[in-house]
């Protein structure tokens, strides 16, 4: 029985990942992999950024905030002779898809 346990657990994990999830249950992860300028922000700024994004009700408000945030991060990386990676996707559109924004 013990030999089959890893196989059974793997199957259950794969099966669970294929199950549909309600939009309200999905969560957007804010981390160094999807927030350009993450390394240029303090932990307090990251937390504030996260809360601000989740507080918006409209797509336009979110996009305006993200444009301003991008400019701030571009200034910081320029001061440190670094480059700011392009966003991998539009976070505001993703939040809309998840039902967080209207």
How would you sum up this structure, described in words?
The protein is mainly α and 102 residues long. The protein has a domain at 27-97. Helix content is 54%, strand content 0%. The protein contains four helices and no strands. It has helices at residues 5-18, 43-55, 59-79, 91-97. The longest helix is centred in the C-terminal third of the chain and has 21 residues, at 59-79. The protein is globular. The model is unreliable at 12-25 (pLDDT under 50).
Helix content: 40-55%
* Secondary-structure element string: HHHH
Tally of individual helices: 4
Low-confidence stretches: 12-25
The assigned structural class equals mainly alpha
Strand content: under 5%
Question: Biggest sheet, open or closed, and with what strands and sense?
Answer: none
Mean pLDDT: 80
Ends apart, CA distance between termini: 50 Å
The tally of strands reads 0
Estimated radius of gyration: 18 Å
Large-scale geometry: globular
